[in-house]
Specification:
InterPro entries: Amidohydro-rel, Hydantoinase/dihydroPyrase, Metal-dep_hydrolase_composite, Metal_Hydrolase, Metallo-dep_Hydrolases_sf
Distance between the termini: 78 Å
Radius of gyration: 22 Å
CATH topology of one domain: TIM Barrel
Protein name: Amidohydrolase-related domain-containing protein
Shape: globular
GO molecular function, one term: hydrolase activity, acting on carbon-nitrogen (but not peptide) bonds
Helix content: 25-40%
Bound molecules: dihydropyrimidine-2,4(1H,3H)-dione, zinc ion
Family: Belongs to the metallo-dependent hydrolases superfamily. Hydantoinase/dihydropyrimidinase family.
Pfam family, one: Amidohydro_1
């Protein structure tokens, strides 16, 4: 038997597609070799190419693979009770089925643990060999000890970890303002991007006590315990703390509130390096979803909570006008029907109808992020690619390897959507998703398109009509990240120089 591999000029060609990047929509054929985008050529010109495989996109849009830089997997109880219902294996399987080829997940540092490097090492063990898509890590800082701060330089220089997340709420994670300042100062010195969860934890705890004293403990009161003003206040404070440390760059994560959005926009207009993220839950859910019959509202308990219809519109506007650099899923899954680790851990003899204070905060969404927003028709396609792929790749130091279609440079990470003639009207159901979570908050929603193929480094890892998930959990690679390249963020800091307390 002849076992010699037949060699081809290209490994994969995608022909008759309409390529969408953050800057352009144009028909090109794409040739892929050795896992990279090799060539873009006039449409149809590669349909007879010498390639191991040719996919005819049939006129469909082809976008860079999704880059989702806000994903929680295999995390312990940090947001109330419970622990993640998705592992690296199941969460990244879900990612590729929804067109996402790279995630950045969190390496959580426990409050009792002084080291960030330990948190990173522990998380590498969970992810290695268990990832269907490429991945990086942010460190979630629970304890900004001297040791932790001193390790930030190593994370950037040796480990390819160039961002951290800090919290202004949650008992297990909340930092005081002085701790936030210490983190920002070190982040400035080491060129780390600081992601901030901006909600005033002390105020929401007080409001929660007030609600509980009136026995208002059902899931819907999660929303009353975290009104928009808490987010606006904390966002304003985060921006003030950043400006105090000589305008150190920060990213406000999962922004839900128009007041916070306006404050961010003002800071950006003033030239401050303030970046912002929003998520599908603030575009597609409202607080009414927390008011579902019985305990069902717990399925939509996340923080900040979904707001009202007018807020949704303001968030869409913020995406369109560039206030938000990135649209992430904040995939933070907990099973619903699970009294050990899921949403129902808060149902006890004392609180048979549940107690919102103890509901694990977070919802799944890594697989639905791209189809929901692509199908919405509310963003130009170039903007869709910008906020869901190119923007996150730039913000988190992955560009142009990720988030682009640059020949010779970019990994061949792609999504081929369905062409108009074959567009499936998909009704989202949990049964069709690939996570290990027992529900989706988007059950029953109609979406007009879905990734037909997902390609990761030149390999077809998702073929919706022929086998579904074709990738393997050993194929995803850890990606070392560089500094952020969005908006000359660190060049500006270089020009401004270091923080000088005497100059305040
Ligand atoms: N913040 C997150 O980023 N994810 C889930 C819970 C939370 O509050
Ligand atoms: Zn958060
Ligand atoms: Zn999150």
């Amino acid at each position: 038997m002849n076992t010699e591999a037949v060699s081809h000029e290209f490994d994969l060609v995608i022909t008759n597609g309409v390529c969408v990047t953050a800057g352009d929509v144009a028909p090109y054929d794409i040739a892929i070799k050795d896992g990279k985008i090799h060539l873009l050529a006039p449409s149809g010109s590669l349909s007879g190419a010498d390639a191991a495989r040719i996919i005819d996109a049939e006129g469909a849009y082809v976008t860079p693979g999704g880059v989702d830089c806000h994903v929680h997997l295999e995390e312990p109880a940090l947001f109330g009770r419970g622990s993640s219902s998705d592992t690296y294996e199941t969460g990244t399987r879900s990612a590729i089925a929804g067109g996402c080829t790279t995630i950045v997940a969190f390496a959580p540092q426990n409050k009792a643990e002084p080291s960030l490097l330990k948190a990173l090492a522990d998380t590498h063990i969970k992810a290695r060999g268990n990832s269907y898509c490429d991945y990086g890590f942010h460190i979630m800082v629970g304890n900004p000890s001297e040791q932790a701060l001193s390790e930030m330089k190593m994370l950037v220089e040796n480990e390819g970890v160039t961002s951290i997340k800090i919290y202004m709420t949650y008992t297990a994670l909340q930092l005081r303002d002085d701790q936030i300042l210490s983190v920002l100062l070190k982040a400035r010195q080491t060129r780390m991007l600081t992601m901030i969860h901006a909600e005033n934890g002390d105020v929401l705890n007080w409001l929660t006590d007030q609600l509980e004293s009136q026995n208002l403990v059902a899931p819907e009161f999660h929303s009353s315990s975290r009104p928009p003003i808490l987010e606006t206040e904390a966002t304003n404070r985060a921006i003030a703390l950043s400006s105090l440390i000589s305008n150190t760059p920060i990213l406000l994560v999962h922004v839900s509130d128009p007041g916070a959005t306006l404050r961010i926009r003002q800071a950006q207009t003033n030239g401050q390096p303030i970046f912002a993220e929003t998520c599908p839950q603030y575009l597609f859910l409202t607080r009414d979803d927390l008011n579902a019959p019985g305990f069902e509202g717990a399925k939509c308990v996340c923080s900040p909570p979904p707001r009202d219809k007018a807020s949704q519109d303001a968030i869409w506007t913020g995406l369109s006008n560039g206030t938000f650099a990135v649209l992430s899923s904040d995939h933070c899954p907990f099973n619903y029907d699970d009294a050990e680790q899921g949403k129902k851990t808060c149902i006890t003899a004392e609180h048979p109808a549940g107690r919102f204070r103890e509901i694990p905060n977070g919802i799944p969404g890594v697989e639905t992020r791209l189809p929901l927003v692509f199908s919405s028709g509310r963003l130009p396609l170039t903007k869709f690619v910008e906020v869901s792929s190119t923007g996150p790749a730039k913000l988190y130091g992955l560009y142009p390897r990720k988030g682009a279609l640059l020949p010779g440079v970019s990994d061949a990470d792609l999504v081929v959507w369905y062409p108009e003639a074959r567009r499936p009207d998909t009704i989202v159901s949990n049964a069709m998703l690939h996570h290990a979570t027992d529900y989706t908050p988007y059950e029953g929603r109609k979406v007009a398109n879905w990734p037909r193929y997902t390609v990761l480094r030149g390999k077809v890892v998702w073929d919706r009509d022929n086998g579904g998930v074709l990738g393997q959990k050993s194929f995803g690679q850890f990606v070392k990240r560089g500094p952020s390249s969005l908006g000359r963020v660190w060049e500006t800091v270089d020009e401004q120089g270091e923080f000088d307390v005497a100059g305040l």
